[in-house]
Amino acid sequence: MEQVWQQYHQHLRAWLRSKIANPADVEDVLQEVMLKTHQKLATLESRDKLKPWLFQLTHNTVIDFYRKRGKRLPEVEELWYGAAEPEKVSQQLSACLLPFIASLPQSTAHLLRAIELEGQSQQAYAQAAGIPYSTLKSRVRRGRLQLRALFEQCCHLHFDQQGRLHDFAPKQPGCQRC
After folding, report:
1. Which among 7, 68, 89, 120 has most CB atoms closer than 10 A?
2. Rounded to an integer, what distance in angstroms lies between the CA atom of residue 19 and that of residue 132?
């Protein structure tokens, strides 16, 4: 518990400061998060999910903070690291996209380049390739899963409750593929 708190409490404090104006309230909420972390850390299924779990716990504590005071919470999208952050994360990871796609089997790489990067519709691709649309959809889904697996070999990916990427951390400094 001590190691977890040492690693993340400054990040949590900074995030709380962006959501709560009064510094004394920030410290109170941070203490509440620390207590909840201590009580619930054992329920965490995977240490790989520690950071998003902590921020979700903190997010929920902020919601409770505003509810107790009868105030409206800032827009939910803005509570995750700020509204522009998911776009920044996507931009940072986009540098890895081409090398990862290139490492896939040739047919899968061609498919993903055409649909994901060049914007060709799946129906048009299926017609041009002479394959049923449902078959193509399955291949695209499989290709996307293979691509995600490559990203997950290199980085810890963190998603919000809607499945949107909101943060990542390299597993090893200087990933060789990016």
Report:
1. 89
2. 50
